[in-house]
Design brief:
The complex is a heterodimer of chains A (about 110) and B (about 230).
Chain A: H1 2-11, E1 16-17, H2 18-25, H3 29-45, E2 50-55, E3 58-63, H4 68-75, H5 85-97, H6 102-109
Antiparallel strand pairs in A: 1-3, 2-3
Helix pairs in contact in A: 2-3
Chain B: H1 13-23, H2 30-46, H3 52-73, H4 87-109, H5 137-161, H6 168-181, E1 184-186, H7 187-190, H8 196-211, E2 215-219, E3 226-230
Antiparallel strand pairs in B: 1-3, 2-3
Helix pairs in contact in B: 1-2, 1-4, 2-3, 6-8
The chains are: A alpha+beta (about 110), B mainly alpha (about 230).
Chain lengths: ~110, ~230
Protein backbone atom coordinates (compact mmCIF):
# COMPACT_ATOMS: atom_id res chain seq x y z
CA UNK A 1 0.00 0.00 0.00
CA UNK A 2 2.95 2.27 0.55
CA UNK A 3 3.76 1.99 -3.14
CA UNK A 4 0.17 2.93 -3.99
CA UNK A 5 0.49 6.09 -1.94
CA UNK A 6 3.83 6.82 -3.55
CA UNK A 7 2.30 6.50 -7.02
CA UNK A 8 -0.58 8.76 -6.09
CA UNK A 9 1.77 11.40 -4.73
CA UNK A 10 3.84 11.15 -7.87
CA UNK A 11 0.98 11.75 -10.27
CA UNK A 12 -1.01 14.24 -8.24
CA UNK A 13 -1.01 17.88 -9.26
CA UNK A 14 -2.03 19.08 -5.81
CA UNK A 15 -1.29 18.26 -2.18
CA UNK A 16 -3.16 15.16 -1.02
CA UNK A 17 -4.57 14.90 2.48
CA UNK A 18 -4.25 11.80 4.65
CA UNK A 19 -8.00 11.51 4.51
CA UNK A 20 -8.05 11.57 0.74
CA UNK A 21 -5.23 9.04 0.49
CA UNK A 22 -7.02 6.79 2.96
CA UNK A 23 -10.17 6.92 0.88
CA UNK A 24 -8.32 6.26 -2.37
CA UNK A 25 -6.36 3.30 -1.02
CA UNK A 26 -9.13 1.95 1.18
CA UNK A 27 -7.02 2.22 4.31
CA UNK A 28 -7.47 3.72 7.72
CA UNK A 29 -6.27 7.29 8.08
CA UNK A 30 -3.87 6.29 10.85
CA UNK A 31 -2.26 3.63 8.67
CA UNK A 32 -1.91 6.02 5.78
CA UNK A 33 -0.34 8.57 8.07
CA UNK A 34 2.27 6.05 9.21
CA UNK A 35 3.08 5.01 5.65
CA UNK A 36 3.32 8.62 4.51
CA UNK A 37 5.71 9.28 7.35
CA UNK A 38 7.92 6.44 6.14
CA UNK A 39 7.83 7.85 2.62
CA UNK A 40 8.59 11.35 3.83
CA UNK A 41 11.61 10.04 5.72
CA UNK A 42 12.80 7.97 2.79
CA UNK A 43 12.60 10.84 0.37
CA UNK A 44 13.76 13.67 2.56
CA UNK A 45 16.67 12.01 4.28
CA UNK A 46 18.46 11.19 1.07
CA UNK A 47 19.69 13.93 -1.21
CA UNK A 48 17.52 12.93 -4.13
CA UNK A 49 15.85 14.89 -6.88
CA UNK A 50 12.40 14.54 -5.37
CA UNK A 51 11.26 15.62 -1.94
CA UNK A 52 7.96 15.19 -0.17
CA UNK A 53 6.65 18.29 1.51
CA UNK A 54 4.27 17.87 4.37
CA UNK A 55 2.06 20.72 5.48
CA UNK A 56 -0.17 19.70 8.35
CA UNK A 57 -2.31 16.86 7.05
CA UNK A 58 -1.33 17.25 3.44
CA UNK A 59 1.60 15.94 1.46
CA UNK A 60 2.94 16.66 -1.98
CA UNK A 61 5.91 15.60 -4.05
CA UNK A 62 8.15 18.39 -5.24
CA UNK A 63 11.52 18.82 -6.83
CA UNK A 64 14.55 19.31 -4.65
CA UNK A 65 14.72 23.06 -3.85
CA UNK A 66 18.43 22.82 -4.56
CA UNK A 67 17.64 22.83 -8.29
CA UNK A 68 15.48 25.92 -8.35
CA UNK A 69 17.27 27.64 -11.21
CA UNK A 70 17.52 24.54 -13.33
CA UNK A 71 13.82 23.73 -13.01
CA UNK A 72 12.89 27.35 -13.46
CA UNK A 73 14.83 27.44 -16.70
CA UNK A 74 13.22 24.23 -17.86
CA UNK A 75 9.72 25.46 -17.10
CA UNK A 76 10.48 28.90 -18.49
CA UNK A 77 8.98 30.44 -15.40
CA UNK A 78 10.19 33.33 -13.32
CA UNK A 79 9.51 32.93 -9.63
CA UNK A 80 11.88 35.50 -8.24
CA UNK A 81 10.93 39.11 -7.69
CA UNK A 82 11.06 41.28 -4.65
CA UNK A 83 8.38 41.49 -2.02
CA UNK A 84 7.49 44.71 -0.24
CA UNK A 85 7.77 44.81 3.57
CA UNK A 86 3.98 44.82 3.72
CA UNK A 87 3.63 41.69 1.61
CA UNK A 88 6.38 39.90 3.54
CA UNK A 89 4.55 40.78 6.73
CA UNK A 90 1.28 39.47 5.35
CA UNK A 91 2.99 36.31 4.13
CA UNK A 92 4.51 35.69 7.57
CA UNK A 93 1.23 36.12 9.37
CA UNK A 94 -0.49 33.74 6.97
CA UNK A 95 2.35 31.23 7.31
CA UNK A 96 1.92 31.06 11.08
CA UNK A 97 -1.79 31.64 11.46
CA UNK A 98 -3.43 30.03 8.46
CA UNK A 99 -6.27 29.83 7.87
CA UNK A 100 -6.82 33.46 8.72
CA UNK A 101 -9.43 35.95 7.56
CA UNK A 102 -8.56 39.27 6.03
CA UNK A 103 -10.05 40.89 9.10
CA UNK A 104 -7.78 38.98 11.44
CA UNK A 105 -4.83 39.77 9.25
CA UNK A 106 -5.54 43.48 9.33
CA UNK A 107 -6.07 43.41 13.05
CA UNK A 108 -2.62 42.01 13.65
CA UNK A 109 -1.04 44.43 11.21
CA UNK A 110 -2.92 47.38 12.71
CA UNK A 111 -4.27 48.50 9.37
CA UNK A 112 -7.75 48.54 8.00
CA UNK B 1 14.76 64.23 17.21
CA UNK B 2 14.59 63.65 13.48
CA UNK B 3 14.51 60.15 12.03
CA UNK B 4 16.05 59.23 8.75
CA UNK B 5 13.36 56.86 7.70
CA UNK B 6 11.67 56.67 4.37
CA UNK B 7 8.01 55.90 4.24
CA UNK B 8 8.40 52.79 2.10
CA UNK B 9 10.03 51.17 5.07
CA UNK B 10 6.78 51.20 6.98
CA UNK B 11 4.11 48.72 6.33
CA UNK B 12 1.67 50.25 8.80
CA UNK B 13 1.32 52.35 11.94
CA UNK B 14 2.37 49.47 14.20
CA UNK B 15 5.54 49.15 12.22
CA UNK B 16 6.29 52.84 12.71
CA UNK B 17 5.51 52.56 16.41
CA UNK B 18 7.78 49.56 16.77
CA UNK B 19 10.62 51.32 15.01
CA UNK B 20 10.22 54.42 17.19
CA UNK B 21 10.36 52.24 20.30
CA UNK B 22 13.46 50.47 19.08
CA UNK B 23 15.22 53.71 18.12
CA UNK B 24 14.66 54.94 21.64
CA UNK B 25 15.85 51.62 23.01
CA UNK B 26 12.68 51.11 24.95
CA UNK B 27 10.72 48.02 25.83
CA UNK B 28 7.16 47.58 24.76
CA UNK B 29 5.49 48.91 27.90
CA UNK B 30 2.92 51.59 28.55
CA UNK B 31 5.55 54.15 29.56
CA UNK B 32 7.34 53.69 26.25
CA UNK B 33 4.16 54.44 24.37
CA UNK B 34 3.71 57.51 26.48
CA UNK B 35 7.19 58.69 25.58
CA UNK B 36 6.91 58.26 21.88
CA UNK B 37 3.35 59.47 21.33
CA UNK B 38 4.46 62.99 20.49
CA UNK B 39 7.07 61.68 18.10
CA UNK B 40 4.54 59.51 16.38
CA UNK B 41 2.08 62.37 15.99
CA UNK B 42 4.82 64.63 14.73
CA UNK B 43 5.86 62.04 12.23
CA UNK B 44 2.33 61.57 10.96
CA UNK B 45 2.11 65.32 10.43
CA UNK B 46 5.08 65.14 8.07
CA UNK B 47 3.58 62.36 5.97
CA UNK B 48 2.81 63.70 2.55
CA UNK B 49 3.18 61.13 -0.14
CA UNK B 50 0.92 58.51 1.29
CA UNK B 51 -2.34 57.07 0.09
CA UNK B 52 -5.33 58.54 1.94
CA UNK B 53 -6.53 55.08 3.04
CA UNK B 54 -3.10 54.31 4.48
CA UNK B 55 -2.86 57.70 6.10
CA UNK B 56 -6.14 56.94 7.84
CA UNK B 57 -4.51 53.98 9.61
CA UNK B 58 -1.76 56.25 10.90
CA UNK B 59 -4.27 58.86 12.05
CA UNK B 60 -6.32 56.26 13.88
CA UNK B 61 -3.19 55.11 15.65
CA UNK B 62 -2.25 58.69 16.53
CA UNK B 63 -5.69 59.20 18.02
CA UNK B 64 -5.39 55.99 20.02
CA UNK B 65 -2.02 57.07 21.34
CA UNK B 66 -3.30 60.50 22.34
CA UNK B 67 -6.28 58.95 24.08
CA UNK B 68 -3.96 56.51 25.78
CA UNK B 69 -1.64 59.30 26.90
CA UNK B 70 -4.43 61.48 28.23
CA UNK B 71 -5.75 58.54 30.17
CA UNK B 72 -2.37 57.88 31.75
CA UNK B 73 -1.72 61.52 32.62
CA UNK B 74 -5.17 62.18 34.00
CA UNK B 75 -6.64 58.90 35.13
CA UNK B 76 -10.35 58.93 35.85
CA UNK B 77 -10.94 62.01 33.77
CA UNK B 78 -11.99 60.12 30.68
CA UNK B 79 -14.73 57.54 30.71
CA UNK B 80 -13.25 54.05 30.83
CA UNK B 81 -14.17 51.91 27.91
CA UNK B 82 -15.68 48.50 28.21
CA UNK B 83 -12.70 47.00 26.50
CA UNK B 84 -9.42 48.65 27.34
CA UNK B 85 -7.42 49.66 24.30
CA UNK B 86 -4.64 47.16 24.77
CA UNK B 87 -2.05 48.66 22.51
CA UNK B 88 0.83 47.11 24.39
CA UNK B 89 -0.20 43.52 23.82
CA UNK B 90 -1.16 44.28 20.25
CA UNK B 91 2.30 45.68 19.69
CA UNK B 92 3.85 42.63 21.29
CA UNK B 93 1.91 40.31 19.01
CA UNK B 94 2.79 42.43 16.02
CA UNK B 95 6.44 42.31 17.02
CA UNK B 96 6.41 38.50 16.94
CA UNK B 97 5.21 38.51 13.36
CA UNK B 98 7.50 41.36 12.47
CA UNK B 99 10.50 39.31 13.62
CA UNK B 100 9.15 36.23 11.86
CA UNK B 101 8.80 38.19 8.66
CA UNK B 102 12.52 39.00 8.76
CA UNK B 103 13.28 35.28 8.79
CA UNK B 104 10.74 34.59 6.08
CA UNK B 105 12.22 37.35 3.98
CA UNK B 106 15.62 35.72 4.32
CA UNK B 107 14.20 32.36 3.25
CA UNK B 108 12.36 33.98 0.37
CA UNK B 109 15.49 35.72 -0.83
CA UNK B 110 17.33 32.43 -1.09
CA UNK B 111 15.09 31.71 -4.09
CA UNK B 112 15.12 28.12 -3.09
CA UNK B 113 11.91 26.82 -4.56
CA UNK B 114 10.51 23.32 -4.65
CA UNK B 115 8.37 22.79 -7.71
CA UNK B 116 5.38 20.53 -7.91
CA UNK B 117 3.34 19.43 -10.85
CA UNK B 118 0.73 22.00 -11.68
CA UNK B 119 -0.93 20.21 -14.54
CA UNK B 120 -0.86 16.87 -16.25
CA UNK B 121 1.44 17.01 -19.22
CA UNK B 122 -0.76 15.63 -21.98
CA UNK B 123 1.74 12.95 -22.89
CA UNK B 124 2.21 11.80 -19.33
CA UNK B 125 -1.18 10.26 -18.97
CA UNK B 126 -1.08 6.69 -20.23
CA UNK B 127 2.40 7.36 -21.42
CA UNK B 128 3.51 3.78 -21.47
CA UNK B 129 2.58 0.29 -20.42
CA UNK B 130 4.41 -2.89 -19.67
CA UNK B 131 3.71 -6.17 -21.45
CA UNK B 132 3.13 -9.11 -19.21
CA UNK B 133 4.18 -11.70 -21.80
CA UNK B 134 7.65 -11.86 -23.19
CA UNK B 135 7.93 -10.63 -26.74
CA UNK B 136 10.83 -11.61 -28.98
CA UNK B 137 11.89 -9.82 -32.18
CA UNK B 138 10.90 -12.94 -34.09
CA UNK B 139 7.36 -12.73 -32.75
CA UNK B 140 7.20 -9.08 -33.72
CA UNK B 141 8.30 -10.02 -37.23
CA UNK B 142 5.61 -12.68 -37.41
CA UNK B 143 2.87 -10.27 -36.35
CA UNK B 144 4.20 -7.60 -38.64
CA UNK B 145 4.00 -9.99 -41.61
CA UNK B 146 0.45 -10.91 -40.68
CA UNK B 147 -0.52 -7.29 -40.69
CA UNK B 148 1.24 -6.77 -44.02
CA UNK B 149 -0.74 -9.60 -45.59
CA UNK B 150 -3.97 -7.97 -44.58
CA UNK B 151 -2.79 -4.69 -46.01
CA UNK B 152 -1.74 -6.30 -49.32
CA UNK B 153 -5.05 -8.14 -49.76
CA UNK B 154 -6.91 -4.92 -49.10
CA UNK B 155 -4.85 -3.14 -51.74
CA UNK B 156 -5.78 -5.83 -54.29
CA UNK B 157 -9.40 -5.41 -53.40
CA UNK B 158 -9.12 -1.73 -54.06
CA UNK B 159 -7.65 -2.36 -57.51
CA UNK B 160 -10.61 -4.52 -58.42
CA UNK B 161 -13.18 -1.94 -57.53
CA UNK B 162 -11.58 0.80 -59.57
CA UNK B 163 -12.59 -0.19 -63.09
CA UNK B 164 -12.12 1.87 -66.11
CA UNK B 165 -15.33 3.48 -67.26
CA UNK B 166 -15.52 4.36 -70.91
CA UNK B 167 -15.68 8.04 -71.57
CA UNK B 168 -18.51 9.87 -73.27
CA UNK B 169 -16.25 10.95 -76.08
CA UNK B 170 -15.16 7.38 -76.80
CA UNK B 171 -18.74 6.20 -76.76
CA UNK B 172 -19.86 8.88 -79.18
CA UNK B 173 -17.07 7.91 -81.57
CA UNK B 174 -18.00 4.27 -81.23
CA UNK B 175 -21.67 4.87 -82.04
CA UNK B 176 -20.81 7.02 -85.04
CA UNK B 177 -18.61 4.26 -86.33
CA UNK B 178 -21.41 1.75 -85.89
CA UNK B 179 -23.86 4.05 -87.69
CA UNK B 180 -21.63 4.28 -90.75
CA UNK B 181 -21.73 0.53 -91.04
CA UNK B 182 -25.38 -0.01 -90.14
CA UNK B 183 -28.49 1.70 -91.37
CA UNK B 184 -30.22 1.34 -88.06
CA UNK B 185 -29.15 0.51 -84.52
CA UNK B 186 -31.28 -0.75 -81.70
CA UNK B 187 -30.56 1.20 -78.51
CA UNK B 188 -30.90 -1.95 -76.46
CA UNK B 189 -28.08 -3.59 -78.41
CA UNK B 190 -25.70 -0.82 -77.35
CA UNK B 191 -26.01 -1.52 -73.63
CA UNK B 192 -23.51 -3.90 -72.26
CA UNK B 193 -25.15 -5.90 -69.50
CA UNK B 194 -22.23 -5.70 -67.03
CA UNK B 195 -21.96 -2.03 -66.30
CA UNK B 196 -24.55 0.39 -65.11
CA UNK B 197 -22.09 3.25 -65.57
CA UNK B 198 -21.51 2.30 -69.17
CA UNK B 199 -25.22 2.19 -69.83
CA UNK B 200 -25.51 5.75 -68.53
CA UNK B 201 -22.63 6.84 -70.75
CA UNK B 202 -24.22 5.14 -73.77
CA UNK B 203 -27.52 6.88 -73.12
CA UNK B 204 -25.77 10.24 -72.75
CA UNK B 205 -23.83 9.57 -75.96
CA UNK B 206 -27.04 8.96 -77.89
CA UNK B 207 -28.55 12.17 -76.51
CA UNK B 208 -25.39 14.00 -77.48
CA UNK B 209 -25.57 12.67 -81.03
CA UNK B 210 -29.22 13.74 -81.33
CA UNK B 211 -28.40 17.16 -80.05
CA UNK B 212 -25.49 17.52 -82.45
CA UNK B 213 -27.79 16.33 -85.27
CA UNK B 214 -25.62 13.33 -86.10
CA UNK B 215 -28.40 10.89 -85.39
CA UNK B 216 -32.15 10.55 -85.13
CA UNK B 217 -34.07 8.37 -82.74
CA UNK B 218 -37.36 6.79 -83.37
CA UNK B 219 -39.76 4.81 -81.25
CA UNK B 220 -42.71 3.20 -82.95
CA UNK B 221 -44.83 2.73 -79.87
CA UNK B 222 -44.88 2.75 -76.10
CA UNK B 223 -42.08 0.54 -74.67
CA UNK B 224 -41.02 -0.36 -78.19
CA UNK B 225 -37.37 -0.65 -79.03
CA UNK B 226 -35.72 2.67 -79.72
CA UNK B 227 -34.06 2.79 -83.11
CA UNK B 228 -31.14 5.03 -83.94
CA UNK B 229 -30.51 6.10 -87.53
CA UNK B 230 -27.95 8.31 -89.09
CA UNK B 231 -29.12 11.83 -89.74
CA UNK B 232 -30.10 12.31 -93.34
CA UNK B 233 -28.78 15.81 -93.78
Amino acid sequence: MKSAIESLLYISTRPLSFKELAKLTNQKVGEVEAMVKELVDEYNLKDGGIKIIQNGHEVQMTTNPKHTELIQGFLGEEVSGELTPASIETLSIIAYRQPISREGLEQIRGVN
Amino acid sequence: MAYQVSLEKFSGPLDLLLQLIEKNELDIIEMSLLNITDEFVKYVETLEEIKPEELADFLVMAARLLFFKSNLLMPGLLPTEDEPDDLVSQLKIYREYFLASKTIHKIFNKHSVAFSRDKFPSDLVQHSFRLKTKITPKMLQHYCENVLQVVVSQMKLAQKTVRKVISLKEKVAHIIKLLTNNIELKLGSLFSPQSRAEAVVTFLAVLELVKERHADVRQDGLFEEIAITKCKS
